[in-house]
Amino acid sequence: MNGILRILVVLILGFGACKSDKNKTPPVLSEQTSQEDNIDVRKLQEIKTPSQPYAKIDAPFKDLSTKQKPYLMLTDSIWHFYFALSLKEQAPKKNIYEGEWIDFLENGTYKKGLYDQTTDSGLYYYNSNSKFVELRSEVIDSSSEWDVRVDPDALLLIGTAKYNNNPWQIKLMRRTLFPVRK
Domain locations in the chain? Predict the structure, then answer.
């Protein structure tokens, strides 16, 4: 638990230090080669993540998810959303995902919901080598990929740029029951 808290603090401080000054104007690049640095300026164009459309549940993904070996650290509990940070927004004062949960099932499916209501379901594939999980929804037109860090009490999901829709880092807590309204 302390390890995840330390990682979260380091990430928060790291993102705060990386904030760019919005008043600065970006440098203008020319077609010429910089003689001082001997760098071809044409190669210094802005790197953009290609926008990949949402992935549907196709036969290859269905095979991957349904035939994968269950990873018990993910599948033995219901995960409650505890705290979320966005790389694009300031840190929220409270849990904006209050009452939300996700349940990874051993058969390669997942259910997601709010309190006792299921709001989404679909298939997931956990790659134990890369420690990434990919979710593809059956209900809404959505897919996402997450870098996974898990310990006995908590799960940290760090959004990847695969679908260009996921600037979040989310901490989830292991529970046995659905969240209850306060």
Answer: 1-6+61-182
